[in-house]
Amino acid sequence: MGWAELFPRILGEDVAVEIRAYDGSRAGTPGAPVAVEIRSPLAIAHLAAAPGELGLARAYVTGALEVHGDMHAALSAFPAVTLEAIPPKLRWELMTRLAPMRLWWPVGVPAVEHRPRGWRHSKARDSSSVSYHYDVSNRFYEWVLGPSMAYTCAVYPEAGATLEQAQHAKHDLVARKLGLAEGMRLLDVGCGWGGMVMHAAEQYGVRALGVTLSRQQAQWAQKAIAERGLADLAEVRHLDYRDVAESGFDAVSSIGLTEHIGAAQLPGYFSSLADKLRPGGRLLNHCITRPDGSHGSRPGKFIGRYVFPDGELEPVGALVSAMNDHGFEVRHEENLREHYALTLADWSANLEHRWDDAVAEVGLSRARVWRLYMAACRLGFERNVVQLHQVLGVKLDEYVSAMPLRPNW
């Protein structure tokens, strides 16, 4: 039996893709628009050593496994069983066949795989984990994210909207939910390349401070702020949100930071943001969540080691309770799950359009990680494995919220 004929037992039977192997064997659906190529026995070795998604990811990232055609279509064709561990009997069979090649163990781990050290969610470890993902290359992110340089879920006003229109709509939705107006002070925690900071300053005349643990993001943002003539109103610092000295802000936005906080740190996180606000100030928390409490908070091994080390996702109910218990009255919530699937589709299209440039900039392995992760996450949002929630809270002035009687955003 050739490797291709064995592979459906790993990926699942009746997959709607063609499977080809270097030994000439074939399996799956002949002539399918998507094909999986086993380019080396190392692909099988990775699966034997790390059954499930981690082994598949390692095989793809190293190039031992190739996907011909659209990555999202390929992942959509694989049944959910591909994310489960390979049965022990099949794993033993793989090891037996690989043993003469001396490939079954140990198998080298790709250099781009990251395992952070130190106390989980300590400042030093958080800084290292954020740097791993975000300090890749500002040029690379410019190609993938587009001119907005917004690395969070966009809000599409209509199905045909462009990515730039949708990112502008997202920032404006946040601004309106926060009730921003000229002369107010905004703190944007985990600000990325400063998109929300610059939007608030430019569109609303708000004095905005953003903080990020990525040095490259802060440098890029400060340059963009100067080029757009916003230096009198906007600033981005390379700083942990826990170390912001100022307080008395009118509003706080947190767009895509909570995923990096960790469940055990949520009470301190929301309490610290409440401390930064004046009475009557609002917080808009925008983050990826689990669809319910039956899922673990930690992501799969591929996302945890190649994309967002130490990331943790909670169901929205846990976030609402934590906000409510630590300084905020919760006033509004909405799920933007489908919007994130659209955002990831646009990012993936940008990556494919500049694929050769991206590979030259960050290396083939890193580019393959991004191609795989964005397609997989898009599928996750489409299938309700993950969601995206915006939760609006207010720090009461004694018992007065100063909120409008009905949402005006």
Characterization of this structure:
There is one protein chain. The chain has 409 residues and is of the alpha/beta class. It has 2 domains: 3-101, no CATH class; 123-394, 3-Layer(aba) Sandwich (Rossmann fold), CATH 3.40.50.150. It has 17 helices and 11 strands. It has helices spanning 3-6, 8-11, 42-49, 53-62, 71-77, 88-98, 123-134, 138-145, 163-177, 195-204, 215-227, 266-276, 301-306, 316-325, 337-353, 355-362, 364-382; strands spanning 18-21, 26-28, 35-38, 65-68, 185-189, 207-212, 234-238, 249-255, 277-289, 329-335, 387-394. A 7-stranded mixed β-sheet has the order 7-6-5-8-9-11-10, with helices on both faces. β8 (249-255), α12 and β9 form a beta-alpha-beta unit. It is elongated, with a radius of gyration of 23 Å. The N and C termini lie far apart (62 Å).
Integer count of domains: 2
The fraction of residues assigned to DSSP E strands is 15-25%
Helix count from the secondary structure assignment:
17
Mean pLDDT, all residues: 90
**What is the CA-atom radius of gyration, in angstroms?**
23 Å
- Please report the first level of CATH classification, the CATH class of the largest domain: Alpha Beta
- Count of extended strands: 11
Low-confidence stretches: none
Based on CA inertia axes, which overall geometry fits? elongated
Structural class: alpha/beta
Give the CATH topology of the largest domain: Rossmann fold
* Element string (H = helix, E = strand): HHEEEHHEHHHHHEHEHEEHEHHEHHHE
CATH superfamily of the largest domain: Vaccinia Virus protein VP39
Gap between N and C termini:
62 Å
Helix content class: 40-55%
Task: Describe the strand arrangement of the main beta sheet, using strand numbers.
Answer: 7-6-5-8-9-11-10
- CATH architecture annotation name of the largest domain: 3-Layer(aba) Sandwich
Protein name: Class I SAM-dependent methyltransferase
EC number: 2.1.1.-
GO molecular function: methyltransferase activity
GO biological process, one term: methylation
